[in-house]
């Protein structure tokens, strides 16, 4: 059974400014908590478009992991979707949407995910971790786009 996590944040710049920042895979390194030791392994430059695959390394609770995602939908400057094709989750589909609002951009993230351990793993560990990661990301984005 998949779980869903939703997050939204208003940024004081138009989608034409915000989307390119999000679509640079290497920006994920500065938007991810240092504890995860997140690193993009794919060599630059990465030309974002549907079908592109990107490899990462990270640590979850100290355990080294490899992660590969594929961009499945690409609609600049309004939306893109990445899906994990290799990594710690059984399912990971992350939709990023950029909506013009009040002279800025409402950024919406919707993540559908599933993992071993189901609801118990989600309740005890995963959801809490994901909320912390997204809270860190929002904090950093507020600083970057201030």
- Mean pLDDT over all positions: 95
Total DSSP E strands: 7
Shape: globular
What structural class do the secondary elements suggest?
alpha+beta
Sheet having the most strands: 7 strands, antiparallel
Q: How many individual domains?
A: 1
Total helical segments: 3
In CATH, what is the class?
Answer: Alpha Beta
Fraction in helix: 25-40%
**Quaternary form:** single chain
Q: List the helices and strands in order.
A: EHHEEEEEEH
Give the CATH H-level superfamily.
START domain
Q: The CATH topology is what?
A: Alpha-D-Glucose-1,6-Bisphosphate, Chain A, domain 4
Strand order of the largest sheet: 1-7-6-5-4-3-2
The percentage of residues in β strands lies in 35-45%
Which ranges are low-confidence, i.e. pLDDT below 50, for 5 or more consecutive residues?
A: none
Spatial separation of the terminal alpha carbons: 38 Å
Radius of gyration: 15 Å
- The CATH architecture assignment turns out to be 2-Layer Sandwich
Short description:
This protein is of the alpha+beta class and 146 residues long. The protein has one domain (3-144): Alpha-D-Glucose-1,6-Bisphosphate, Chain A, domain 4, CATH 3.30.530.
What does this protein look like?
This protein is α+β, with helices and mostly antiparallel strands. The radius of gyration is 15 Å and the shape is globular. Strands 1-7-6-5-4-3-2 form a seven-stranded antiparallel β-sheet. The longest helix has 27 residues, at 118-144. The protein contains three helices and seven strands; from the N terminus they run βααββββββα. The relative contact order is 0.24. It has one domain: Alpha-D-Glucose-1,6-Bisphosphate, Chain A, domain 4, CATH 3.30.530.
């Amino acid at each position: 059974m998949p779980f869903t996590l939703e997050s939204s944040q208003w940024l004081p710049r138009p989608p034409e400014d915000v989307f390119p920042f999000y679509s640079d895979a290497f920006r994920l390194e500065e938007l991810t908590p240092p504890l995860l030791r997140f690193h993009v392994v794919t060599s630059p430059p990465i030309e974002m478009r549907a079908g592109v695959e990107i490899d990462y390394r990270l640590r979850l609770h100290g355990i080294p992991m490899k992660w590969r995602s594929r961009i499945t939908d690409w609609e600049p400057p309004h939306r893109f979707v990445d899906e994990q094709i290799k990594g710690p989750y059984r399912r990971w589909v992350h939709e990023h949407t950029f909506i013009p609002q009040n002279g800025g951009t409402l950024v919406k993230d919707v993540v559908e995910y599933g993992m071993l351990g189901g609801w118990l793993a989600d309740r005890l560990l995963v959801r809490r971790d994901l909320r912390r990661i997204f809270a860190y990301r929002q904090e950093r984005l507020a600083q970057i786009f201030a």
